[in-house]
User: Fold this.
Amino acid sequence: MKKKGKSLGAKTIDGYIERLNSECGAVASSIKQEVEALLPEATSKLYHGMPAWFIGENAVVGFGLTPKKTVRLLFWNGQTFSEPKLSATGSFNAAQIELKVVSDIPIRDLRRWIKKSGKKISYADMIVEQLRERIREYPDLGLPPHPEKSPDV
Assistant:
């Protein structure tokens, strides 16, 4: 059975980046710098063998080396961003982009994605909201109003 995620023998994010080739290391360093600048409240660690940043207990952004020697930038809630440059991945709401060299990084997009990743992070809330949107198509079901959007009583 193939092991999921490879830490490259690193124990820290900086150690992980040091083990990448020069092009991927530069991409990873740039991503790390942007994430730490834009999500100062996030904590970081190696998660499933790759650098990842968390808000609370929720992983929001991370990156890892692909077999093709590119850096896969992953946003755990990326499908909720509605961003065409990010590709859906997995069975939940994750989305990703692969980057080979620093010039591949769409910096304005990256900053926007990072900011978005720090917002809607509760997966349960995202799923409930998606279900609410679907149910709204059937008004006869009598769905109660969203608690945060209800008028004060």
